[in-house]
Amino acid sequence: MMERFKLGDTATYTQTITDADIKSFAGISGDNNPVHMSDEYAEGSRFKKRIAHGLISASFFSALFGTKLPGPGCVYVNQSLKFLRPVYINDTVTARVVLTDIDVVKRRLFFDTICEVNRKKVITGKAEIYLPE
């Protein structure tokens, strides 16, 4: 099964972030930071308007791993994240994962993880995925 993967394998997922997404994520995560929830507060911030929770965009990596590459049954082991730019309401985020290393013995796949808005990186990181037999 591990032999079906090759370095450079890539998968993408695209979604536009809505106000409803932000409110739903706040309800699920408990993160009601006013920079996400309050127009008035956000206007006075360095961002000038409400921003999406960074982990909304980062969660798209989980969607890719669990449904596309490597796919159902895989287990997330590790993820690093660097938040480079804010994501605003109505931004369209494209998440991309790129296979960079394979450990056949430990059944681990290693990926670069990138989110972009308008071809500008907003999140970068690395992920490690375990693939059960």
Automatic annotation (TrEMBL):
It comes from the Bacteria. Residues 13-108 form the MaoC-like domain. One of its GO terms (biological process) is fatty acid biosynthetic process. SUPFAM superfamilies: Thioesterase/thiol ester dehydrase-isomerase. Pfam families: MaoC_dehydratas. GO terms for molecular function: (3R)-hydroxyacyl-[acyl-carrier-protein] dehydratase activity. InterPro entries: HotDog_dom_sf (IPR029069), MaoC-like_dom (IPR002539), UPF0336/Enoyl-CoA_hydratase (IPR050965). This is (R)-specific enoyl-CoA hydratase. It comes from Escherichia coli. The gene is wfbD.
